[in-house]
Amino acid sequence: MGEKLMSCGGESTILNNWPCNSESSLSFIQTHRVNLIDELADYIDFIVDRGLEEHLLSKDDYEDITYERGPRKKVRKLLDIIDCLGEENASFFCSVFIQIKSANLTKQNTKQSEYSKSIKKHKEVLSRRNDCIKYYNARLGEKFYFTDHFVNLLLVKGHYSLEIKKNELLTFGQQRIHLQNNKDLKLEIKLYQIFQKLNDRRTPKKILVSGVAGIGKTVFVQKILHDFAKTSTYSNFDFVLNLTFRDLNLINNPTTLREIIRKKHGHLSSTLDDIFNNSEKLLMILDGFDEFKFYNQIDLDQYVFDPDEEALVPQIFGSLLNSELLPDATIVVTSRPTVINHIPIESIDRFVVITGFSVSEIEDYFQKFYRDDVLGTKIFLSVKENHFLFTLCYIPAFCWIVCSVLRGYSSLSIGEPKTMTDIYCHYLVILLKYHAHQVDCVKDEAVLKAVFNLGEIAYHSFLRHETLFYEQDVDLVQKLPPEIVNSFLDKTSVQELEGTENVLSFTHFTIQEFFAAFYYAFHEVSLSDDVMKSPVQEKLNLYSGWLDLFHRFLSGLMSVRNENVLFKHLKLEGSKRLDTYTSWLIESLIKHCENGYCILNLLHCLFEQQRSCLVQRIKPDVLRLNLSDNLLSPIDFHVLIYFLNLVNMDIDELDLTATHVNADYLKKLLPYLHRCRRFWIGENKLDSESIKVICSALTSSDCKMEQLGLGWTQLEDEDFLQIYKALCSNCSLQGLWTVLHATTPGQCMCGLRTTINTTLQT
């Protein structure tokens, strides 16, 4: 047992010590039984089959061996039988052991070589596919190499997207500022770190990456693919496979995981068995869960356990996510926050939020977009002076649209955009002007009809939660001029059983939402599936978050500003739905004000209108503004201030709970806080500067504040002292809610709590 093992075929094996002159084959097998059980377990089926072929084993012996459960038990049974067969047969079996093991080692080496070649081939394919970054609507022949144009995205660890189930387009803004002002929180995470261990625990296998529309989720995926193909950043993976839910939407019949992968990565067909067998070295990225038409069918107890088992796509995806299928593989899913409440939370190991660009990254983007540092910086500084435009630029997709608009708006005599819809309207006109080469015929009826056809496609696919559609299934596509198709739609060829088919999508989902709103706003005939009617929303499962951007675009398209732009360049008459929509907006605002419902998206809709006269018709019995549980951005506060400036009445309640407000935002609110009776600002990290602003409101001579909520705001001793001093000169406050905490072990602030309560009573 203590002899030195020899090396054969690159592997140490006890069999290299046979034959041995000092002992018989039977004795060799008996002496080294334990080692042989270890070495032969992987080859036992081949050995038993060979023994039966050579008539060394009877059928009864063969059945006795194969009946045993597990390869090691089978080896033990075989060795027991060999003990009874004599020296000659034992010697023959030893030679069989060596032959079969050597043959399998050769096969393994060949297989390993083929596996390595597949890795190299796959990286070459990914490198080719991701060599260029895609700018929406790039001119024919324009290429933007990834390494030259990629701008870093900020990623943070967190669960916020699970708590916020609405698609607030600009929620990233305040979160970024919050991160920059609180770097000690250490929430930032580098892209390569998302696969590292969780607090010295196991490596995360299921990762959810969320971010609002246009924030860079697809570019995030492309960055991983690009770096995997060209660097050693992700060397812990042999293969990275990416799939999009847009593509998965095209699969309506039962299929297998193997077939799904083969459609996208056909070059891996012969290697898939090895990839599945080494799934701990596999990273699968599924991009765009919010675009999945079966998003609400995931959390079902219907699983598949084998890559070759047929099932519907939701079952296959759910099985991957719940570790029933390829449990050792790493799975990354990207999505807007809108629908991720349909993903089983318990299956996710790590939550990551993409929050877009920082200020320096916006400038970097401008320089790379214009390919001129001087021009890029000049336009960047111009945009920085416009609060609204600059806020939009934190979202990469909007940054691109703003750059596109500003590159051409001056020559079209278009006023500087003020709202999100302004940007998209100008974008529409500019693309028709330059990309579609419609210099003078932008005013042509044929162009307007083409735009309406785009809108109809967008509207009906939007209602069905579809972002991809076959060219042959949409008659309207056939009627579109090629220039229009190339400007606003992406075309992809997909290999089907019947042949190659073209699949279309809008260049970005927000573009689809804009065209859907355009169609609804200006379509003259009444629609059977009117999205503004509650029964239709219930029938089509159109929850509120899904419609948020649609409502904002719809409101902006019906504004006088954009009606003038569209009439000037498209000869488009104003919407006949304006009065109906305006009534709905006013009634909704009144209802939400009186009942304290979350009002943020309605405030955005009002802001998009840019009609201050509308506010005169908003006369609720009480004004209760609930913006809680939204990570408020600068533009969110901008629309709130816009509304408060126009409404001349006391604020019964203002709820900013869990909104990540800071001192800068509170300073903007200060002119309105004196007329606020109940102010809730708990679950925010308030610093001493924030408390100064609140105390300033409390000490105002015309302060009407009666209730103040400061629970879970991490206040320090000095903050409570500031509040106490402010209360000494305040006559209105009747209730103060807070959670006091000890700043050092054993310390108690009951004395100050009593003092504050006494102050409130006197």
Automatic annotation (TrEMBL):
<keyword id="KW-0391">Immunity</keyword>
<dbReference type="InterPro" id="IPR032675">
    <property type="entry name" value="LRR_dom_sf"/>
</dbReference>
<feature type="domain" description="NACHT">
    <location>
        <begin position="205"/>
        <end position="337"/>
    </location>
</feature>
<keyword id="KW-0547">Nucleotide-binding</keyword>
<keyword id="KW-0677">Repeat</keyword>
<keyword id="KW-0399">Innate immunity</keyword>
<dbReference type="InterPro" id="IPR050637">
    <property type="entry name" value="NLRP_innate_immun_reg"/>
</dbReference>
<dbReference type="InterPro" id="IPR027417">
    <property type="entry name" value="P-loop_NTPase"/>
</dbReference>
<keyword id="KW-0395">Inflammatory response</keyword>
<dbReference type="InterPro" id="IPR001315">
    <property type="entry name" value="CARD"/>
</dbReference>
<keyword id="KW-0832">Ubl conjugation</keyword>
<dbReference type="Pfam" id="PF17776">
    <property type="entry name" value="NLRC4_HD2"/>
</dbReference>
<keyword id="KW-1271">Inflammasome</keyword>
<dbReference type="Pfam" id="PF00619">
    <property type="entry name" value="CARD"/>
</dbReference>
<dbReference type="GO" id="GO:0005524">
    <property type="term" value="F:ATP binding"/>
</dbReference>
<dbReference type="GO" id="GO:0042981">
    <property type="term" value="P:regulation of apoptotic process"/>
</dbReference>
<keyword id="KW-0067">ATP-binding</keyword>
<protein>
    <submittedName>
        <fullName>NACHT, LRR and PYD domains-containing 3-like</fullName>
    </submittedName>
</protein>
<dbReference type="Pfam" id="PF05729">
    <property type="entry name" value="NACHT"/>
</dbReference>
<keyword id="KW-0963">Cytoplasm</keyword>
<dbReference type="GO" id="GO:0061702">
    <property type="term" value="C:canonical inflammasome complex"/>
</dbReference>
<dbReference type="GO" id="GO:0045087">
    <property type="term" value="P:innate immune response"/>
</dbReference>
<feature type="domain" description="CARD">
    <location>
        <begin position="21"/>
        <end position="93"/>
    </location>
</feature>
<dbReference type="InterPro" id="IPR041267">
    <property type="entry name" value="NLRP_HD2"/>
</dbReference>
<dbReference type="InterPro" id="IPR007111">
    <property type="entry name" value="NACHT_NTPase"/>
</dbReference>
<dbReference type="InterPro" id="IPR011029">
    <property type="entry name" value="DEATH-like_dom_sf"/>
</dbReference>
